[in-house]
Amino acid sequence: MQGRSTLRALGGTWATLAAIFLAAHPAVAAAQATASSAPTTPVVRAIEVEGLRRVDREAALVGIAAKLGQPLGPTTATHDVRALWQTGFFRDVQLRQQAQGDGVRLIFLVAEKPAVRAVHLCGYNALSEDDLRAALDVKPFTILNVELLKKNVQKLRELYLDKGHYLAEVRFAVEPVRGAGSRGAAEVDVRFDIVEKAKVMVRQISFVGNRHLSAATLKAHMQTREGSELGFLTQAGTYKEDFFQTDLLRLQALYYDHGYVTAKVSAPSTTISRDMREIYLTLAVDEGEAYDVGGLRFSGDVDLTDDHGKQVASAKLLRDQLSLTPGTGFSRTELFNDVQKLTDLYRDHGYAYANVTPNSSLQADARRVDLDFEVDRGEKVTLESIETAGNSRTRDKVIRRELRIYEGDTFSAAALNLSRQRVFQLGYFESVNMLTEQGSAPNRMKVVVEVKEKSTGTFQVGAGLSSYESFIATAQISQNNFLGNGQTMALSLHLSFGQFAQQMAQFQFTEPYFLDSRWSLGINAYLTQRLFRDFQRQATGLSPSFGYPLTHELRLMAGYTFEYVTIAQTDGGGGGGGGGGGPQINPHAGDLLHNLSRAGRVGSVNGAVSFDNRDNRLFPTRGTFDELRAEVSTPYLGADEIMAFKRLELATRYFHPMPLHTVFRFNMQLGYVFGPRQGVPISERYFPGGIYSVRGFSPRGLGPKLSVPNNPANPHAGTREFIVGGNKQAIFNVELEFPLLPAAGLKGVIFTDAGNAYNDDEGMFYLGTEAKERTSGYLIGSNARVQVPLGLFYSVGFGVRWVSPIGPLRFEWGVPLTKHALSDDPLIFEFTIGNFF
User: Fold this and answer.
1) Looking at the whole model, is its pTM more than 0.70?
2) Which residue of 259, 346, 517, 740 pairs with 330 in a disulfide if CB–CB is 3.0 to 4.6 A?
3) What sign results for the dihedral spanned by CA atoms 55, 58, 59, 65?
């Protein structure tokens, strides 16, 4: 018994020791702790925030993970304290947990950052306060954010850099407001202190390492220019950091275009002058070697046939499209242009998502670039729907009728671009975008024509001066999109005084799609009085016309004109009015003049065919405009017998861009009008000369003349010259137009002109019929007669053109090379409002 007791006692002792050992073991202790705590994870019963003054409770708690009624995770408290801190509203965040029933109450104790009461700007002068404040994100009545202040300092600094203040300094300061806040929250004022300093002028740009491209060539491709004494007027030479960073890319691209595909242009070293007003830039260039184009390959989905089975793409056809050819110098620009041409070829045949990737391989030993054009056509795409957006006033049909894409058609990039161009050319919209998105399937596309409308109604009243017409007064009221139907309606008045005065009242109406057809209808009613050198012409008329586009660039026009014309002789000096009208003009001047000065009804039909592919109708830089016009006036159309005539005219204009943004411009006008045996009425004859035709000569002063008596009653009073005009004319103008101050719309021009008008018995350029006396080709005066080459009068000159708020202004000086009369001035200055050609 005693032995069993001893054993029992020892067993209990060992059990007790085992229990103590197990309790002390970490793994066992952790397991017991987990087992004991698992069922007692607290549940969130309440969430409170103490210390809020300006910040809303919802804004403070927007990022926390704790949720009412949900268990509080082991890392939730730490996460939520961090979330409140990262809102940027608080300078201190603490969390207190209180037991509440079987759960826990979370109490966030916060101390808000001060609020911004006001934002002050100090030290600025070169920039306006509005421009500075537009760049700021810091606003009054918001919570102070130091990081945001630092970002705003950088924004202001970049703004000054953009304006050329390279050394400008910007700092911020935070000033507490005493006794701030009715609710006890602190307030501060933020102040940005600006030290503008003078603009930095680029005094010199130097290059190191450029062996093949000269410094002048490199500088010509940079936006950054070296300053000059006139820099304060043009701002040329002002250092702008963002412009210069772009220049580094431009120089790199220039080398790539000359085949130096390994060229590197390093960041510049800069030197600032002692007065901190000038900067010297030195750029290091590592040109490397020039590479030629090597092999040309095509891979991928190359072969393509159109819907008619004609092959439009193959390796041979694509190679013929390329401007890059093996053995020629490599050019990255030409490569990009070639890739665009190949991509457009596939996109124009329905593959809207076609992609051509030029994979290049440099052969350093042979110094060549092998190219593999990888073609990924994708699926052929059809247009599922076409919608319009943004046209609140303009009707849908006005936009849709200009489109050259149609629902159900195969996608075409060229047609899409042409459609955007035609809608924009209406002149009703500030912008036109063709937005595309996938339709109901990957091979279907939706197109949205998104427009931003602009005001199309105008009311203008103006006054001006012109060497041609002296004082000018104009008034016009027009609506270019009448009732949103795309119609044009305008009423205009023009009054001018002086040697070549004009008075005009005109009403115009145009319906571009008459009865929803492709025919256009125009109606023009007018009352005009026009003063020539020796007579004035008055006309009242009505002219309806029709037009039809054969293509986007080729157009037919036809019309009818009925007008009543009267002729009155002036005082002979070219100014002022004269009494009388009709055929009774100076009967003593001779039968020819008396016959030409007849007047009456004109009834004529006219037709024209024109071709126009200019890039801009008002200020073209590329393209041509050609027009052939014909007109017939006959009694069968309502004309008086004495006002019968036939007219044929040809006009052509050519524009071509030249280096340095210069534009070459050429204009030619040929005209021929003929009538019955009594000759062409003086009201329909040609009178070239002046700023609108042949510069360097007096307005409407070229062409045939007659000698008429100064005083018909006194045969001893002498004679004077009466310009009767020609029934034929030829005018040629050649111009080089170049920018002077592009930002101000100022351009310069140098020109040479040639032209003349010829009498009924003279051939153009004095070819054909021999005249008894070529009065239009001789210098008349003091019995001197000098024939001009080819029967044309020549001039050269220069001018300045300004696209002003009231319209294009022209100031031009012409020097006659062959004089028409002894009284011709050696230099004629003229100015007017409006374009030339």
Assistant:
1) no
2) 259
3) positive
